[in-house]
Specification:
Helix 6 packs across helix 7 (about 145-160), helix 8 (about 165-180) crosses helix 10 (about 235-255) and helix 9 (about 205-225) packs parallel to helix 11. The protein has helices spanning about 5-20, 30-35, 40-60, 60-75, 95-100, 105-120, 145-160, 165-180, 205-225, 235-255, 275-290, 300-310, 330-335, 345-360, and strands at about 140-145, 190-195, 260, 270-275. It has 14 helices and 4 strands. The protein has a single domain (about 5-360), classed as Glycosyltransferase, CATH 1.50.10. The strands form 2 sheets. It has a two-stranded antiparallel ribbon. A two-stranded antiparallel ribbon has the order 3-4.
Length: about 350
């Protein structure tokens, strides 16, 4: 796909994500949440991270300005609750500091990252317990989502603050999550692990869970590589790379002929889900770009880009994204999750298109 078409589609997706009217979705509380860009939580955080990546890849200075305007408009909400899922929007703070040199972004990054490293709830093996803004508790549970929602911010904070302790903790968290969630038989990741019960609960190899890691881990490693720290011969990093390569090869093998992935990766008869597919393909591009995966796998991501275009409505809404999904009671339940536009669906698609823009000639 040429650059002009990619830029057009990315612009449509971005515009719908940041500027659509929520009233068009009626009064349904769940759908209202799904497209609410101004709620400080993981959902908007994914969109914000994607917007910043897109602004940089497309050379759209106004987009970076709108990311900063979002923070100015919503940052007071961040004081209301500190949980793992609410860390996601902070991931743009180091980038905004790099751009503006505003001490607020550095100070808030330091304060929040130190809270996460020292005070956020942990499971018995030291991984971040998956805590959420909703009134729900997932005691002793490790979720794949946490890599993107929290550990990415920690890695960016480590780079900004030149803090080796934070960098090592980011690596440690990636490794703890991969060890807990990776299926040794297939190389794929399960959605969650219950440290108390010692099981993967529903044991679903859910595609968006895999996407958070496929996309998030290269972003984390790229951030740490630019931190100036020496990670040569680092045993954690060596094992992460081995596990990640197993994951990315396993994902490429599970891709449907359409270019997308089923919502549960080992259930090809389940519906194809776009947000996770976009995140997986974005991860393949990123991993190939930084040498974490072979360039030959990029063909898989190319097919996803072409497939995703068909799911973008004229107004920029990305169809085919499943609703917010906790670890469900059974594998079958994942095939019943309703589908509608979401901020994270827009965001993961935008991340894919932004990375695709890095791959093509102008």
């Amino acid at each position: 796909m040429n650059r002009e078409t990619l830029e057009k589609k990315a612009r449509q997706v971005y515009q719908y994500m940041m500027h659509s009217e929520r009233t068009q979705w009626g009064n349904h509380e769940w759908i209202d949440w799904a497209m609410n860009i101004d709620r400080w939580d993981w959902n908007a955080g994914v969109g914000l991270i994607a917007a910043a990546e897109y602004g940089r890849a497309a050379g759209e200075e106004r987009v970076i300005g709108e990311v900063e305007a979002w923070v100015t408009r919503n940052r007071d909400q961040s004081e209301a609750v500190k949980v793992i899922n609410s860390m996601a929007p902070f991931a743009v703070y180091p980038q905004l500091y790099d751009r503006q040199n505003n001490p607020y972004y550095r100070e808030k990054t330091k304060e929040t990252a130190e809270w996460m490293a020292a005070q956020s709830p942990r499971t018995r093996n030291g991984a971040f317990e998956h805590t959420v803004t909703e009134k729900a508790s997932f005691r002793e549970q490790i979720w794949a989502d946490t890599i993107f929602m929290a550990v990415l911010f920690l890695a960016r904070a480590a780079r900004l603050l030149s803090d080796r302790r934070m960098a090592d903790e980011a690596l440690r968290q990636v490794l703890l999550h991969l060890r807990a969630l990776q299926d040794e038989e297939t190389g794929l990741l399960f959605h969650g692990w219950n440290c108390e019960a010692g099981d993967w609960m529903s044991a679903a190899r859910w595609n968006r869970a895999n996407a958070w890691n496929a996309c998030g881990i290269p972003m984390i490693l790229e951030e740490l590589a630019s931190s100036g720290f020496d990670f040569d011969e680092n045993e954690m990093l060596i094992e992460i790379k081995i596990r990640y390569r197993r994951l990315i090869y396993a994902l490429a093998l599970r891709q449907n002929a359409s270019g997308l992935w089923p919502t549960v990766l080992d259930r090809p008869e389940f519906y194809e889900e776009t947000s996770g597919s976009a995140g997986i393909a974005c991860g393949i591009y990123k991993a190939a770009r930084i040498g974490l995966a072979p360039a030959s796998l990029k063909e898989s991501a190319d097919r996803t880009v072409l497939a995703m275009v068909a799911y973008i409505s004229d107004n920029g809404a990305v169809r085919g994204a499943s609703g917010g999904t906790p670890v469900l009671e059974s594998v079958a339940a994942y095939n019943k999750v309703p589908i509608f536009p979401t901020v994270y669906g827009q965001g993961l698609t935008l991340l894919l298109f932004a990375e695709a823009l890095n791959q093509v000639e102008g």
